Amino acid sequence: MIDQNMLNLTPPQVEENEITLYVGTTLFQTFLCTPEALEELGVGHLYCRGIISEREDITKIEISKIEQDGLDKYEIRVELKNQIEKDRKRQDSFQMPSVSHLQDLAANIKDLAGKYRSHGGIHCAALSDSRDIVSLYEDVGRHNAFDKAIGAAVIKGIRPSELIYFSSGRINSEIAEKAAVCRLPLLVSRSIATTRACFIAGGSNTCIIGRIESKIPFLYTASTRE
């Protein structure tokens, strides 16, 4: 028998809902994620999949809430332009910041990640142009948080290829693959990177820095993009 007197009976919970993304009438993707910033999620996911190159490639986006079996579910329905230019091989402008500056940005992002600091159990993803934080999202899935951060940048008309990605968790292969599609030059993490993520980043000329809060952060892969 569990002694309930020794337990907190009102623990925090992280919201998780099913989200379906339709492109036209076709079911494109199903997410289990935090039901916030769903336009950013849809735009970012399509950008990360190489389907769109800018927000204007989407002619219509609708978000609806559906109650099913006592749970809230959401639908994102997107219509695309008939012809989409997918060439992203433009010259990018990026200059690698100093490690101390990256540490300052990471500390600022951590301060702004309210849910992460409050109760954990959630991932934080942010994008910075080295000066300001362009976007910051928290989600139960690291890949969802990434998509939302990318989507916000695309909606603002900012090219992800000139931004720095900050993560509260490890850099895994899924994030490295998304970063390669988005041509992100630098991935920064409070944690470490997986072997497959490093392999992918090496092939896409992406720099990965881990343990950014430590006195001597880890350099996993270097970039020659400067």
TrEMBL record:
Protein keywords: Cytoplasm, Molybdenum cofactor biosynthesis
Domain of life per record: Bacteria
Source organism of this protein record: Oceanispirochaeta crateris
SUPFAM superfamilies: Cytidine deaminase-like
Protein name: Formate dehydrogenase accessory sulfurtransferase FdhD
Pfam families xref list: FdhD-NarQ
Molecular function terms, GO-annotated: sulfurtransferase activity
Biological process, per Gene Ontology: Mo-molybdopterin cofactor biosynthetic process
Stored PANTHER family: FORMATE DEHYDROGENASE, SULFUR CARRIER PROTEIN FDHD
KW Cytoplasm (keyword) present: yes
